[in-house]
Amino acid sequence: MLLGTSAAAALGGVLAGFGTSQAVAGPATAAAPAQQGPQYLPFHGKYQSGILDAPQAHAVFVGWNLNWRDGGKKDQLRSLLKMITDDAQRLTAGRGVLADTEAEMAAGPSDLTLTVGVGQSLLDVMGGAKVGTLPGFAGDKLHKRYGQSDLLIQFCGQDPTVLAHAVRAVSKNLRGLADKQFIQRGFMHQRGSGDTFRNLFGQVDGVNNPQGETRELAVFGTPDQPSWIANGTTLALRRFEMDLEGWDEVATSGRDFALGRRQSDGSPLTGSVPEDPVDLDAVNEVGLPVIGANSHVALAMPRSAQEAIHRRGYNFVDVEASGLLFASYQRDPATSFIPLQRRLAEADLLNTWLTPRGSALYAILPGIEPGMYLGQQLLG
Amino acid sequence: MNTKNTLKTTAALLGLGLLLTGCAQDGANATGAAASESPATQASSLQASETWAKAAQTGMTAAFGVLHNAGSTDIELAKVEDQAGNVIQIHETTGTGTDAKMSQLDGALKIEAGKDAVLEPGGTHLMYMDLKAPLVASETASLTLSFSDGSSTEVPFEVRNFTGAKESYENHGGMDHGSMDHESMNHDG
């Protein structure tokens, strides 16, 4: 969702997005630049991987709740995070985890990333920091299973088999220590389309996602104004079911009006290419707004630079439902994701065909250097 | 696009660097001296990597890993102990599948100069005979490895869940586990 969020524009940035230009290139003009194949992405660094990186084709979001033993929770959490750190650095380098019975499946570069976040419950164990939880939003019909968990790992990669192994390997290591609350699998485009992809409504999603430094600023803030911790961020994960049967009945003009952009190419109704400005003041020949005030793009448009978010969502198709795993990274959800989501939840024309089923907020741990473990900045 | 490709290339180089760092780290994780020096003791020739132990509440369990002799002379692992006072034996497995037989190694485990002793499920392993306290997954078990020259070194073994290697070692002609409890013969080794 949050299609056409003009975050970069709000920040005064200039968008010449790689993803955007790819989005308008149809099959006939697909003179794609020579792509390097998937790689082993670095695990160590200032930030965790899987956030600023171009989204991989496949994602699995897994939430766990910890089983505490007798004794200090801090020590238990520390050893668990050390294990996950070891697992992640092995898997992202194409190696099996310790005690891996299928280490062969880890081999082969696939841009695999594991991005680790903790809920407020674990932040409390770590001491001090606050990110809170997401409030309820209008229209929420949440399934408990897709709600807040203690621990979240976002697994992303280009190869679903490598990805499945990574999830399995980490799950086996966590057996007994934590119970899986949810596993949410998502997919988007083939590699090379940048941030934009077709969601299951057929819309071009991800237009005007902040790029480059603007993205980094929206996600991690600045040294003076960081997220909940320096080089950490927050992830809001919302699961939206789409009423595809109902959507079938909506004519193209109705679809485009609800979104404020054209399904055909993602261009705003006040422009001709996706990156054209969304002009909420434009009126048609009879004086009516071209883009409705309750259209998705009108409501999703950031009201200030503080509202900028970085969307990294994925489609999902399950037996019982289809929709969008809306994954949003932002420095401070209280000033960005929450007001924005509230606005959309109350009035977005697309809500007719959307049902929120999951909602959770995680503190994404800061990146680490070799020899460190995730969370060491708090637990060390 | 140029920027993008440049970034990708950088990422590739970083990735390569990481792999190398990763390998180096395994070595660093090991105890003992660098291969280039002439070590004073057998213990200082040992470089242990990929060391892990199977989580268990009680009874028998095992520890695995790669023990590399970085020295220029052979070393002999004679004894394994821990702080808790667990009885830990060096076991070897001969044969495969249902014909596999495990037994305590007769004498020390010899590791030739420059070679590895690979301790793995179904092969040679370090056997906890009867845990005095649980080995909890994600925690670290520390073992003191002593060598035939009397030197010793402490090696961390990461405790992990493992449900494999449940070959039955019912009296299959010749198996001799001495005082082992035959009711728990689903031996993890």
From TrEMBL, chain B:
Coiled coil (residue ranges): none
Domain of life: Bacteria
InterPro entries given in the database record: LpqE-like (IPR007410), Lxx211020-like (IPR058248), PCuAC_sf (IPR036182)
Family annotation (Pfam families): PCuAC
Keywords from the UniProt entry: Signal
Signal peptide, first to last residue: 1-24
Keyword Iron on entry: no
Record bears the keyword Cell division: no
Span list, region Disordered: 168-189
PANTHER family the UniProt entry points to: BLR7088 PROTEIN (PTHR36302), COPPER CHAPERONE PCU(A)C (PTHR36302:SF1)
Entry protein name: Copper chaperone PCu(A)C
Originating species: Glutamicibacter soli
Organism phylogeny: Bacteria, Bacillati, Actinomycetota, Actinomycetes, Micrococcales
